[in-house]
Amino acid sequence: MAVAELNSAFTKTHFHSSQLSFLSRSVPKHQHCDFPTLHRTQQHARISCSVTQNQVQAPAVQIQEPKSKSDCYGVFCLTYDLKAEEETKSWKKLINIAVSGAAGMISNHLLFKLASGEVFGPDQPIALKLLGSERSLQALEGVAMELEDSLFPLLREVSIGIDPYEVFQDAEWALLIGAKPRGPGMERADLLDINGQIFAEQGRALNAVASRNVKVIVVGNPCNTNALICMKNAPNIPAKNFHALTRLDENRAKCQLALKAGVFYDKVSNVTIWGNHSTTQVPDFLNAKIDGMPVIDVIKDRKWLEEEFTEKVQKRGGVLIQKWGRSSAASTAVSIVDAIRALITPTPKGDWFSTGVYTDGNPYGIAEGIVFSMPCRSNGDGDYVLVKDVIFDDYLRNRIAKTEAELLAEKRCVAHLTGEGIAVCDLPGDTMLPGEM
Ligand SMILES: NC(=O)C1=CN([C@@H]2O[C@H](COP(=O)(O)OP(=O)(O)OC[C@H]3O[C@@H](n4cnc5c(N)ncnc54)[C@H](OP(=O)(O)O)[C@@H]3O)[C@@H](O)[C@H]2O)C=CC1
Ligand SMILES: O=C([O-])CC(=O)C(=O)O
What we know:
Keywords: Chloroplast, Disulfide bond, NADP, Oxidoreductase, Plastid, Transit peptide
Family: Belongs to the LDH/MDH superfamily. MDH type 2 family.
Bound molecules: NADPH dihydro-nicotinamide-adenine-dinucleotide phosphate, oxaloacetate ion
Subunit structure: Homodimer.
Strand order of the largest sheet: 6-5-4-7-8-9
GO molecular function, one term: L-malate dehydrogenase (NADP+) activity
Subcellular location: Plastid, Chloroplast
Order of helices and strands: EHEEEHEHEHEHEHEHEEEEEHHHEEEHH
Strand content: 15-25%
């Protein structure tokens, strides 16, 4: 009888049949293993594989603890000691990434990018913690199965759950995508309230169980005000760590400028989206550059910039829905990747990126206490600073004032969720999400 033995240190304590199929893949290629056997001690598990010519032997599996609701999924319950394998010795420490709305369309693109290593790098193992609801639990299992079947080397753990207090445990990144879409006839105030409740609860959960330096990117709409609510409910996490995703708007603006100037879009830089992720957002062509030159010196059609370009970016999401029948999912996932990478890699010299962040202490005179998209730079440590050397003209100031007024009105409308008293909803009538046009 030939016996192959694999020693691994396990941090998890549960095993079931799907793991055994994984374990059999772990046996050296020259030895076929029909029946991997798991032996457990207090801290370690050892797999031995019995290989016989004629003999059939039942697998012996000792299960020591029951699997709990939000625990690891399938093959991901198996956690190797990364230092024990030659290939993984140089890898960084595993990081925990929580994703809400994980069974939704955006996540369906994003999760596979995260798992592939293209976001955090080829030496960064990750654990994905997927938050769903009763409604989506089955679908979430399907997502986890697809992640299993993708055999991503860097994806070391996946867990699924419906309780944010469990799913957000030790999260170092929280990508908050899940939110109720605005249905026909629904008032924007109702949407703010329904989604606000979700983000208030998730803020409290992050406050209670996430890493103290968790970086939070809110995608679910209306993302600026949801980010504000989340932040206000997480007082023990730095306010600076909360972002509303406006990178998709920045990417859309770069694309339109490149198209008009007849250049490839990598020539377009320094594009700021000011304000709300809504149709009042301000894509800033005054400070933007094409091939290092001010956009206004390259595209000398101010009327086009003020009217057509601006409106195209503001309403791009809605036009896409009309054509595609659903809202941007792939390009949103790409922009989430861009937003994360903007924080974990140094910003190219002279350039900046847009993200919705808390306005307290901003150098532009924008009202404090709201989450507003502004130009930022990072040295790649996950943090950012606001860019000071930007210029304004009357046009830009007026446009910024409009999106600022909208966000202040949204803030008053969710005062009951931010601990700031009684809500008063006097939202401007034309307030729309990009996708609502
Ligand atoms: N900031 C940006 O640039 C962009 C933001 N968005 C926003 O991202 C969000 C997600 O988009 P997408 O993935 O396409 O949407 P999907 O409809 O595919 O998924 C959204 C998820 O939200 C969750 N959800 C939470 N609460 C509710 C609720 N009350 N009713 C229904 N679903 C709920 C659902 O998951 P579960 O049941 O698991 O909770 C669902 O899977 C939306 O709010 C959208 O407007 C979209 C594009 C760009
Ligand atoms: O309104 C939506 O859900 C879509 C959206 O935010 C966008 O495309 O920018």
